[in-house]
Specification:
Blueprint: E1 3-5, E2 9-12, H1 20-27, E3 37-39, E4 42-49, E5 52-61, E6 64-69, H2 76-89, H3 97-103, H4 107-116, H5 120-129
Antiparallel strand pairs: 1-2, 2-6, 3-4, 4-5, 5-6
Amino acid sequence: MNWADYGSYIEIYPPKEFNFEECLTFLGRSNQEVLHQMKGKSIVKLIKVDESLILCKIGYINHSIKVEFLISTPSGPSRQKVGEYIWEWFDLEQDVEGFYRAAHQDQILKNLLINMMGYGLYVYRIYLKH
């Protein structure tokens, strides 16, 4: 995980192909979602770490995912676990660069990528992992 801990918040540095706006669109497709709430250009999510519940505001600033802790600042290890959870949630470990190169050679995937750039991690899962 590529991240920085600033105490009262953390920043997660996703791969260059990551598109937070597209994730907001995907995650905001239903106003009946109970696992997170959309607040403007941010996501508010309650994350369980060990026995604690940590309320987070997840936004995107200057090519980084900024995670603010809304009620209290968790311990250093808990902040790291929140970062790891979000890293996994957005599947940021996945190397999609090779997929993008291959998809640009395929007529069907090429058009899909043009329309869905930023959903790349989801497209990767749908077409290559399942």
